[in-house]
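input
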Amino acid sequence: MKTDPAYQASRVPGEEIAQRIARLQHRLQQHSVDAALLIDPLNMYYCTGTMQQGVVVVPATGEPVFLVRRSYERARLETPLQQVLPLKGFSRLQSTLTELGLATDTLGLVEATLPVAVFKTLAKAFSGATFTDVSDLLAKVRSVKSDYEIGLIRTAGTMHALVYEALPGMLREGMSEWELGTAIHHKAMTLGYTGITRFAGPGMELFLGIVSFGESGNAPTASIGPGGLVGLSPAFPLLGGRKQLVRGEPVFVDIGFGYQGYFTDATRVFSLGPPPVAAMEAHAICLDIQEAVRCRLKPGALPSQIYQEVHAQFVHSPAFARHFMGFGSNRVPFLGHGIGLAIDEFPVIAAKGHAPLEENMVIAVEPKTGIEGIGLVGVENTFRITADGGENLTPGVDQITIV
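output
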C-alpha cells in the first residue's frame, strides 16, 4: 500500500503510543486487572494509532497485542505496535492470548460503549473469566494530554479561529440557519476540518455543531449541551433549520473543529446590527463567568468547587439563573467538559466533579444563557490546564460581534 508523505507524517509516533500504553498499564496494575480488551474505535485508536477493526489487548505487564479483523494490511502500516495478528474469531481469543503468555482471569472492558451482543460473545469466549468495567479508568488516562496531543489541539484551535474570523462575511439578512451552517462547514473543510464529530458515548450525533438565529437557540433539543436548535426535520434535528435571519437578533454559532482526530470546541455570537440590550448584558455576565472559571483551571483544583464558587458569585439573579446553561428543559448541570479525541470527555466542571484537575487536561468552558423572546447568548473556549490557569487554545473575539 503506497501512501503520500503527508499521510505518513500524520501517523502517531511510536513513542507516543508507548507512553499511552504505559499509563494505561499502570492503572490496570493499580486495579488488579490482567488485561484490557478494547473494541471501540476511539480507545483502539488511542492505543494503536489506527482505526482498523479488531480487538486491542493491553496486558497489565508486557507487550500489547492487536488482533485485526479488517484491514490487517492497513493496521500493520499505521500502528507502531509490534504484535499485530489476524483475528481468527472471538471463539479463539482466549486460546490465542494464552498461547502468547497473557493472563485472562480478570479482563477490563469499556462497558460505556460495549454492545450487549458483543459482551455476550466475549463472555462465551472467555469461559471462567471475570469482567470489570474500565471505562472511567481509560477516560482518566486519556484526559491528561501529551505534548503531541496538545500540539494537534492547538492547531485545531488556530483553524477554528480562522472559521470564526470569516463568519461575519457570510452573514446576510434573510439567509437561513442551514445556509449559514453549510457556508461554515465549507470554510472549515477547506482548512482541514475532518468532517465528523465524535462522542465518548454511543447513540449521539452532531453535524458540525449548532447554528441558531434568535429564538431558535431556545428550542427544545436532545443535545447534551445548553444550545437549542430546530434542524431540517424531526429526522435531522441537527446544525440548523429554515429560520431566516432578521436584523438585531443573536446569531448563535457553537461548532467543533476536528484536526487529525482531535477537537476544539468554541462558541461565538454575532448580530446584524445591534442586538437587544438584554442580550448584551446577559452575554457580558457569561464572559465574566468564563474568566472566573478560567482563572481556577489549575492543577489540584476540584471541578465541584469551581462550579459552586462561580455559581455563588454570578448565578444569583432569579431572571438570569432561570435559563442559565440552557433555556427551559435544555438546562444542563455543568459549566465545562473535557475534550480530545471526543467532543465530550472527562473531566466535567460540575457539582459532582470531585477528581482534582491535572496539568495538560483540556476543557471546553461554555457559560451560556437563554433569554425569553430573544434567544441564546454566551461563549465557549477550549482551555489547557496550567499552573497559571486555563490557556485559551481557541483565540478570537468573545464579545458579540456586531456586523
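quick obs: Residues 144-402 form a domain with the Creatine Amidinohydrolase fold (CATH 3.90.230.10).
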